[in-house]
Each structure stands twice: as structure tokens, then as C-alpha cells.
């Protein structure tokens, strides 16, 4: 049975964010990764992965390399992440010490429950909400990077910016994926003149794949951040940034300079739990990553998934059913723990065991609702959040055995479409519920001033039975992220697959009443088998992009999703 690694107060309804994580184990770490083994960087773009490996070769730590990856992704993968957004950072070392840093964006102080409501009291259209300053949260990635570097950096801060500065100044080739997203979400990519100048030719056509692009404004921003540190964003240019966002925001309420100057990345306790003989640690609220991954796995624990094997229709049916239960709880309970008391019982072993009994190998649950974990009398209502998109994950290990798992995002492709200093600003605030209440009941993930919106990001580190960190993994793709991670962990743990093969497994996404499967990567006969059980199944393209680093065969090995442009690079 899954066992959460936390110290709870007497009440099981204690907010998860207030818990003290205990990444302790029954035995001391043995057979720890050798310090002499080269580190590895796995990222969603080869240029970013190489940037991290370059820092490792200079003697940088895993944290240094991860910062360099995040900065390089700002240049080469602007549709997915960067310094205009935020992220979650999870780190461990050979001693098993564990830290997580919350660099999630925050809503302006002026924001309130009606932030996304129109004059008629109804929610704004998604496009109207996104392409405006109303969708932009205060960026957190630079503050996150500074906090991580202060604690775990080895190289000078400025050195970490040099690969990204070179890329922005000297040029990088437009990738196939990059060109695809410019065309697909053109209204955001080229919403402002800076985007047009970056991606379009004189006739207004998207530049061909392979075209060398340069971004002088972003190079200047990165150079200033390298020289002046985080103050360049959170003090020196805070007024300009706030004014730029405010100018795009309809109505009187807008981002203020103080929203930016008062921002800070926050150290939070990780949320950990056991699945089989492994301990899985990930990001707690405001991320729904850890709780959702642990719920999916905890509800599967009583079934012999290993014996079923990766081509078992029953195993995938149970995986779908467990998602339905986990996402029902996620939608009701998960939100910023500084504003909402997220029930600790949501990952309680007895609670997950009871939820698991709703599942059966040969039957589909007709209806799924949020449960009532210990200490909760009535579940809050499901909010009204748009579909999440985007994001980038990267995993890094260094030769000292330190491991970093970091997921970074600006939300949808090219975020809000607004650019400042050569980078795109996020649209993370559309991860809030547009409706603050449902039938008079308050939604946990409603908009509030200074609040961080709920996220699906699931940067994860896995420890074996001896307490040795053996896998860093995460994914991109909005709401699919916890499922991608859970699926890979089932493959890695139950089916004894390498991280690469576990990531490559077919994807099945079932957060509600319809199961989505991949169009061209599916277990033979699965759709018909699921439909025979009463499932509604749709084959479609899914936004999948996972990255990992594992300890196997006495060395670090990287893994990258074959559906993406991602690669792993050795130090």
C-alpha cells in the first residue's frame, strides 16, 4: 500500500502545504551512484540540453546546469517556457536530502474572484482572457533560479547565462516543432511586432524550418540579468514590466510594480509516497502533480499490474479508471495552500484503498465524483478552468550524484502573446477557475490577489528501497502531465522498463468520462476492448513530451520522449 512520507498534525485535514516532508528510509542509502560517473542532461531541445552539459563540463553542479537549460529554452523553445513564466524545482543528493522550490507565477494584488468575468457576470471567452494582460502572472523562474543557485550553485551566476546569450545573439535554427507552433497559434506568436520580426518574412509568412533566428532584445535582457542578477527583473525594470502588462489589461484592475518587487520563490515541503518498493517524491500544492501521481499509483497498488504486462487491456482499463478518481479529487481540492486548506487525507493510504475499491477489472465505473478524505464533510465544487497547455521539463544529474527535476512553463503556446525584453510573458492566470463559485459554493482554485494558480507540473524524483535516488522524471503537456509521469512509473516499476522505454509506452489519458488514446501509438486491440467495457474512447493527437535521467548499470542514462525533439546529452 502507498505510504506517504509526511508528518501530519492530529487533523487529517491539515493543509498539505504546511506538512513537513520526511524523505527518510528504513535503511541507509547503499550502492549510491558513483561520484566519478559523468552527469547527464535531458531536455526538450538539443540546444538547451547541450547548454546544460556545457555547464557540467565547466565544473558546474546539477543546479547550475538546470538553470542554464531553463535560460536556453527561453531562446530556442519560446512557445513552451522561459524567464517570462515560472516553474517547480525538485533536488536531491546522495545523502537523500530533498528540497522543492515553488517558482509559480502569482496573480496581481488587484485580482479578485471576478477577474475573468465579463460585465454580464459570465466568464470571458478563452481568447479574450489569454491575449490580454489579464492572463499574465508575475514571472517566477528567475527568482526560482536565484534561490536554487544561492543554495546549490558552484559556478558564478553570470556563467550560467552564457550559452543562452550566445544562442540569442549569434542565432539558432528554427526547429520543425517551433515552426509548427508559430503556424498553429499564430495569433499569439506574432501578436506583437517583436514576434512578427522574429518569426515572419517580409510577406508575412512563417520562416522556413532551419532558418537562423536571432533575438537581440532577449540577448540584452539575459546579459543584464547575468550582470545585475534577479534585481534586473524584480527591481530595475519592474515598473516597465508592470506598465507593459497593465497597458494590455482591459478595465481598471491591472498588475502593479509592487506585485513584481514583492514576488518571491517559496521553499515548500515535497509530497512523497511509496509505490511497491520505491519512494516517489514530487511537488506539492499549488501543483497537483504529487497528489495526482500518488493517487493514481496508490489506487493501482492492490492490483498485480506487473503480471498483467504492458499489452494487457485490463491494466490499461484500470489505469484509466484510477485517473478518473484521481482527477475528480484534483479538480475539487487542489489549489494554492497559502489560500486554501488542501486536505492531507487526499493521499492517505486508507482513503486511497477505499477509492480503489470503486474500481474493478471487468467493469467501468458509471459515474465518478470527488471523494471525501478524512476530515472533509463535503467536497468543494469542480471549477471552470480552461484546458492547460505547453510547458517543458528537464532532468539533470552531475558527477557528484546530485539530481534536479525542474518543470518550467509559460502555459499555452507563446503564453499571452505579449513580449517584453525579447521574451514571451505567460498566461498562467488562465489556470485559475474562471467561475469563482458553482451554485453558491466557493471553488478552491478561484482567482485571488497574490494567489498562485493550480498547476499540473509534476517534477519527480524516485528513490529505490535503499533510499538511493535512481530516477528524475517529468513531462510537459498541460493536464496530461501527471498521467505521463504515472504511466512512466508503472512502466519503470511494474514492468521493469528503462526510463526510455517507459516514456515511449503508449499514452492513455482519462481525466473525465472520455478516454483519449494516441492515434498512432496504441496497444493492439485496446480501443475495442475498452469500448466493450462501456468506455467512450477517442483517438487523437496528445501533447506529450517527457524527459528523464536514471541510474542504471552503474551509470547515469538520459531518456527523452520520441514524440518530441528532446535529447539527452552526457557531460
UniProtKB/TrEMBL annotation:
Gene Ontology MF terms: hydrolase activity; transferase activity
Keywords: Hydrolase, Signal, Transferase, Zymogen
Pfam families hit by this protein: G_glu_transpept
Signal peptide: 1-24
Similarity section: Belongs to the gamma-glutamyltransferase family.
Protein name as it appears in the record: Gamma-glutamyltranspeptidase
Organismal lineage: Bacteria, Pseudomonadati, Pseudomonadota, Alphaproteobacteria, Sphingomonadales
